[in-house]
Design a protein that fits this description.
The chain has about 450 residues and is α+β, with helices and mostly antiparallel strands. The chain has 16 helices and eleven strands. The strands form two sheets. Strands 1, 3, 4, 6, 7, 8 and 10 form a seven-stranded antiparallel β-sheet that branches. The chain has a four-stranded antiparallel β-sheet with strand order 5-9-2-11, with no helix packed on it. Helix 4 packs antiparallel against helix 5. The longest helix is centred in the middle third of the chain and has 33 residues. The radius of gyration is 27 Å and the shape is elongated.
């Protein structure tokens, strides 16, 4: 097996473009990052920037404690007026979506260079606003991410504002991108129990989906909207029950509503069990008290696991039944290391059955990877795409952060040519370096 290594630098041009050809489809990886051109003797030495600023990677983001407070509104307003004066000609010329998008890119690039918080905040706001006016969903979302990475703002609210503004922009906005960008935010809002926002966004996503005529997308978002509407109504009842408990802490029916909600819908067992232990349902009250005792002997753990399983068989609500079976699996797993023979076989079977029913607690999800999708143009603003890639139908080109800086682009292309071109942002004195490692046969590279 032969291996070839290349390093290409690009220092000029309005766009970065790479034309890559693989013969016989060997495995290829590319490392790409943008860095500042060497400063002249009069320029201050500054650390190189990577594509992390442009792709808004989830890995390595500043923690909330590291983010700056939102600058004083008066300072931001003053800076915005100066910004409008400085960019007056560019703003006046931004009449088409392409020019609006370019102006948004310039604001974003300048924001990443700004040192004064009020300036950076105002520039990021301007970048987001012009990306919205351009109808570019992915770029507007990236600008919102950039703002939240640097300042202590409510990202979910900002993204909701962006998507709602995009939905009113009209022509130029891709309904597919709008629907798909809104869908995960609905789940985030619901998870945070911000149901007013969740309902509003789910309706927005469904309206966008209906404009696509995509039957699968419409079906999925119709189901999501129905679930969110129902959850919002249920949450209103929970709020009423909590208010009842504030007035009367011994109200058994209110404890039942709150306990079921916390345990079976939110998976917050530590909180929910304390309510179920005081509820009006005798079987759940007994189970909750046994569970809160946290048995350590395997025999008692098996007894509790079986009790939760038997109670699940009496439950008519499917999500609650799955949650009870998940709790049963939790206690079977606790006991499993000390089990042998038929007891072990039964425990393993119960754990598997709980997993099949959706009752097994799902592991924490890993941070989402950024990827280029030539059909939806996600994460990177693609001007033009040609060529074929092997993949799972959605992730054609994987992009992963690497420890030394920059990103790793990994793919398995078919034989033939691949072309991808993306904008040169930031626009001033930057260059791009791409290093290719190709296994098997040869790789022809044409950079322009």
């Amino acid at each position: 097996m032969e291996r070839f290594g290349f390093t290409i630098r690009i220092a000029q041009g309005r766009c970065w473009g790479v034309l890559i050809g693989w013969v016989l489809g060997g495995l290829g990886t590319a490392f790409a990052f943008a860095q500042q051109a060497p400063p002249t003797p009069t320029e201050a030495q500054t650390p190189p920037r990577t594509l992390e600023d442009l792709l808004q990677a989830d890995e390595g983001k500043p923690t909330p404690a590291q983010r700056q407070p939102v600058p004083d509104p008066a300072d931001v307003q003053k800076t915005t007026k100066i910004l409008q004066e400085v960019y007056k000609d560019d703003i006046a010329a931004a009449k088409t979506p392409e020019k609006k998008r370019a102006l948004a890119g310039r604001f974003l690039a300048d924001a990443l260079e700004a040192q004064v918080p009020a300036e950076q905040f105002a520039l990021l706001q301007a970048a987001r606003q012009w990306a919205v006016q351009a109808g570019d969903v992915s770029f507007a979302i990236r600008c919102a991410d950039a703002l939240a990475e640097r300042f202590q703002v409510d990202l979910l609210s900002i993204k909701a504002e962006v998507l709602e503004a995009l939905s009113k922009t009209g022509t130029g906005v891709s309904p597919v991108e709008l629907a798909e960008a809104t869908e995960p935010l609905v789940l985030q809002a619901a998870e945070q129990e911000r149901y007013d926002m969740a309902v509003r966004l789910s309706r927005l996503a469904l309206q966008a989906a209906r404009r696509t005529k995509n039957a699968d997308l419409i079906k999925r978002l119709t189901a999501q909207n129905k679930q969110v509407e129902q959850a919002a109504k249920a949450f209103q009842k929970i709020q009423a029950a909590l208010e009842t408990l504030r007035q009367n802490p011994q109200d058994a029916e209110a404890h039942l509503l709150v306990g079921r909600y916390l345990c079976f819908e939110k998976g917050r067992w530590d909180e929910g069990l304390r309510h179920l232990a005081q509820c009006s349902d005798e079987s759940l009250r007994r189970l909750a008290n046994d569970d809160l005792a946290q048995p350590t002997e395997s025999a008692k753990q098996i007894t509790l696991a079986e009790a939760w399983w038997q109670r699940s068989q009496q439950e008519k609500d499917s999500p609650a039944q799955a949650a009870m079976q998940g709790r049963s699996a939790y206690w079977y797993q606790k006991a499993l290391p000390n089990l042998t023979g038929l007891d072990k076989i039964k425990a393993e079977r119960r754990i598997q059955e709980a997993a099949d029913s959706g009752g097994k607690p799902t592991p924490a999800q890993s941070p989402p990877r950024h990827y280029l999708d030539p059909q939806n143009r996600k994460n990177v603003n693609i001007f033009w795409w040609s060529g074929e890639w092997k993949g799972d139908g959605s992730k054609f080109l994987q992009i992963e952060s690497i420890a030394t800086g920059g990103y790793r682009l990994t793919s398995q292309p078919n034989s033939g040519w691949l072309v991808f071109i993306f904008p040169r942002v930031p626009v001033n004195a930057y260059k791009m370096r791409m290093t290719f490692t190709v296994e098997k046969e040869r790789c022809d590279v044409n950079v322009c």
